Amino acid sequence: MSGMKFMTNQTHDGCLIQGARDCAFESVNIAGPKTTATLTTAADNTACVRFDTTAAIVCQDIVWNHGSFSGMVYGVKTAEQIESVTFSNGSFDTLFQGVYLGDAVAPAVGPTGFRAVQNIFDNIYGEGIVIENVGNNCSAYNSFYDVGNHFLGTANPATAVIDINGINNVSVGDMFERTTQYASALLPRIKLNNLNGI
Questions:
Q1: Cα dist. 162→11, 13, 121, 178 in Å?
Q2: Which residue of 72, 102, 108, 138 has the fewest C-beta atoms within 10 A of its own C-beta?
Q3: pLDDT reading at 25 higher than 80
Q4: Which of 197, 145, 147 is nearest to 172 (CA)?
Q5: Contacts of 103 (CB under 8 A, 6+ apart)
């Protein structure tokens, strides 16, 4: 699928990828109705992209390149078993959180092999990327601007920019507008939760 934009003024997900393999999305953009004034809570639980794996088919080998995701609670959210999924060269803007993998309750088999690579994250209320109770996922060479500041600017940090709370995950070469002056042990650029993430 290529060269398309999906917009909604309703409170629902933008795209559901269900039981799919070997799919490519090029310049496919999703926009919802939320603004910085309404994205101060995750209560609506909407996502630009959500996955659903069936018993017969695990979502696998999916690439989303040059997309933009905005105006919903999450850019990408899933606790489903997915494998080798890449979001690259895209824009995550005006969201509550950018990418959320896993769940507070560890899934039996969650996302693995997920890669967020060379994206821009900006105007995000909470964390740009959360990896929760799942492993073998990667954030690499992304640029994080006004992220984790409750829309109050980088001089007012409120959360970590990347929160890795699962084993065997990695952040490589990510770049942050949040300077060392505003990064503390409680509100770091990358929070590893004393696990073996890198």
A1: 26, 23, 11, 12
A2: 108
A3: yes
A4: 197
A5: 79, 110, 132, 133
